[in-house]
Design a protein that fits this description.
The complex is a heterodimer of chains A (384) and B (275). By secondary structure, chain A is an alpha+beta fold. Chain A is 49% helix and 19% strand. The chains are: A alpha+beta (384), B alpha/beta (275).
Amino acid sequence: MALHLAIKEIWRNRGRFLLFSLVIALITTLVLFIAALAGGLADANRQFIQELEADVLVYQENVDLQASSSRLDQTTLRNIRRVNGVAEAGPLGFSTATIVFADGREAVDVSLIGVEPGMPGDPVLLSGSGLRNKRDRQVIIDSKLAQEQNLKLGDEIVIKSIQGTDEEFYTLKVTGITDERRYFFQPSLIVPLGTWDRIRPQGTAPTTTTDIVFNVIAVRLENPADVEQMLTRIPAAVDGVEAANKQQAILAIPGYTAQQSTLNTQQGFTLLIGVLVVGGFFQIQMLQKVPQIGMLKAIGSNNRSVALAALFQIVIVTVIGVTIGSLGTLLLSLGLPGNVPILFSGASVISAIALLLLIGPIGGLVSVRLALKIDPLTAIGVRS
Amino acid sequence: MAIALKTVDVTKTYGKDETAVVAVHQANIEVQQGEFVALVGPSGSGKTTLLAMLAALLSPTSGSLLIGGEELSRMTEKERARFRREKIGFTFQANNLAPYLTALENVELMLRLNGKLDKAGKARAKELLVRLGLGDRLNSLPNQLSGGQQQRVAIARALVHRPEVVLADEPTASLDTERAFQVVETFANLIHEQNRAGIMVTHDLRMTKYVDKVIQIVDGKITRVMSDPRQIEILSRTSNFEMAETDMAAEKLGGLFNARVEPVEVENLYVLRGN
């Protein structure tokens, strides 16, 4: 009975209800886009650390887990390798560089990352033979860069880097392609640590020293389940270091937390606006319907079916709106240029849609409550 | 004829102690099956309150209300809703119909509420609308119908589930005189045909033309019950209770003298002429 009335009413007023569904669709699009943007931005920031084949990251003490401030040396690396429970440890050096092209293509800024071949940080490859020697002029590129710049195994790329005040150019041979792992929004070039130390931008021209200073140590544990325990054991065993798991390292990326919380707040507010808009619409509609609901109750409809009919309507309109909005977002995202950092992850889309489906019933509760309170006496013009 | 509705000393008081207002005071009425009754009275007389109690919308403060053998005064709200959809047919002054349902769907709604929308019920709904002259408007929405047509749809809805009592709250309030008479006449005919008990609340005494009994309520008390057809005929013509009563008295007097009674222009003055 309730469903029948709800559907009849929607159908006979389909223009108005469709219009309102479209409002919900727009809210849905906005929420999904913000979620995708948050996902995309987060991903672009943290991809490298997320994908890193390591369990624990070790930083210099008192640098707030900032890779760019952290300085570690070979002695520390050796000490960490001796800590009980550490399977392997590899150095990571972070820097930036620019790829230039002879054919006049626009130069590409990249993250230049130094690793020790075979140690944590040296990525699993999709293709190619990978890095061999500490000082080889070899490079592993990520698949997205390879695709965008049409680079293949065996290609040579030219890196521009500032040494002192001079521009220096280095030629590197692509020996491996790994999955997409951007760092600070830039594609990664992974090179042997010696090479990294040689070509990274430096205030003074590089000196030949055997003891290369790098930023972070990536540690693979004998038992990955021991992460928490190792986070205290490593600093206890080795002087001057701090250990973090991947999640802590990601949260410490400059701007990451601020950016994500801004976007999450926006998403929260959009959902809140959704609740208020739905609530307002159905409340006003219910106020207009007071006489006819009074009539329905006077001829014997029970309270339950009147409230159910109101709820059904809200649910139907919300579901239609969210569906239109989701499909619209999908279409829009297909037409969006590739440099907009949006990422639709299954989990975030599902949770956003679940929240969106809830805004209807939550917003509509006020009007359902009003429907319950309408006195059948209003049908004969009596105000109780 | 069986009694469809009976009230015993029904009283409704609003408020308490010093601010208490007695809306209906010890009302006793009785309506038979197949009887069409007009409940009349000035506004504020308590007729709406009495109607609300008869419709199981309101519980009396004291007294007893029996409809179809069921005692209404002690019912819970849920029982009253059930009672209303099973035993009562209702038409209202305004907002009679669900605006998003067609004429036929509005009538069927009453059966749907009772979970009795079967083939026979659908046929009866249609038949009633045809009988009320709406055979070509079955699929019209309320806003495509005139006020009189809407009122007739409401009458069909009030009868379709064969209720014990049919209540009509000012059914002619928004109609012009001609249409008002048509609606009330059809209503009366259907009440008699279907052998239901019908109560029409009205402030328009002309509408008593088609009723079997007139109950007048003033200041919450039942002041007159008129069931003599000739008296009611005079009432509907003059809209004046006193005149109906004195006319009757004069006629009786004339009868005694075997004289013809002619009213004079001046109220309550009669000339008896010998034949």
